[in-house]
Amino acid sequence: MGDKHLNDKVTLILGAAGKDNMGQVMARRFAKEGAKLVLAGRNEDSLKEISEETGGSYVLCDITKKEEIDSMVDEVVNRHGVLHSAIQATGWGYLSPFLESKEEDLIKIMNLQFKGPYQFFQACIPAMTEGGSIIQISSATATIMLDNHAAYMGTKAGIDHVVRTVANEFGERGIRANSISPGLTASPMTKDAMAAPGLEEAFLREYPLGRIGTSEDIAAMAVFLCSDECFLSGQNLQVNGGLTLRRNPRSADIDASVAQAMAKLEN
Fold first, then answer.
1. Helix, strand or coil for residue 132?
2. Which one of 35, 49, 121, 238 is at 20 to 30 Å from 226 when CA atoms are compared?
3. pLDDT tens readout for residues 55-99
4. Given pLDDT bands bounded at 50, 70 and 90, which one contains residue 38?
5. What is the Cα–Cα distance from 202 to 91, expressed in whole angstroms?
């Protein structure tokens, strides 16, 4: 993409309150492309910092609370008069064996990864009076398997299907809706896990393009989806280096890779 492909497009990114997380990486890229940013999440200090860095503004919002979602979008419209692009980038990397998933955790992840995004779309669509782009950050695991991830995968897959219904119903109003599905992504959220010797290697062999994805990869796709050049809607875009041509490693594969790396370190 060239310079200023998003010039003056009012862009809301929910999930930009974590230091250097995917939402913040997207915010930096969108700022370079000329977007008018409103960043949202729960950590005010972090939101204030990234908003000052990118020349945007911020709104506090807990995605599990409908009244806060509605208030957030109302504030965007009050400030800018319209909403052109809306990106939902929150999530919870909940890991649990299927038979051990607790009811309270299932309710929490459904609120975070299904009900919340659903109500986010509901709030954003009426504000897109000039058409626009809705993006849901999904996951390759909504398509291919990963052990001990059923609740995460199920809620991501469910909201991906809602994205398709939004694209179908509101395309006549010039609104596009798409999901972006990363694989394992180098980010602050995965830093500690990926530091384990052998873990990254277990995943790396499943990526045809030969590297783990980055938040910058996702930001680049998001810029295209929000640009006037985009003629895609209702799609789940697998921005993960070809991972879905293969698979995620099984737990036994990961354990074996880690054990092999540890043995090398001990020797």
1. strand
2. 49
3. 999 999 999 999 999 999 999 999 999 999 999 999 999 999 999
4. very high
5. 24
Q: Judge contact between 117 and 159, C-beta under 8 A.
A: yes
CB 244 within 8 A of CB 140: yes
Question: Could you tell me the maximum CA-CA distance found in the chain, to the nearest angstrom?
Answer: 64
**Tokens 């009900």 belong to residue:** 115
Q: Which amino acid is at 112?
A: L
Q: Report how far residue 109's alpha carbon sits from residue 143's, in angstroms, rounded to the nearest whole number.
A: 18
- Report how far residue 180's alpha carbon sits from residue 168's, in angstroms, rounded to the nearest whole number: 17
* Contact status, residue 112 vs residue 92, Cβ threshold 8 Å: yes
Residue 129 tokens, joined: 């009076």
d(CA 99, CA 42): 31
Would you say 35 and 54 are in contact if contact means Cβ atoms under 8 Å apart?
no
Beta bridge partners of 175: 132
With contact defined as beta carbons under 8 Å apart, do 34 and 8 qualify? yes
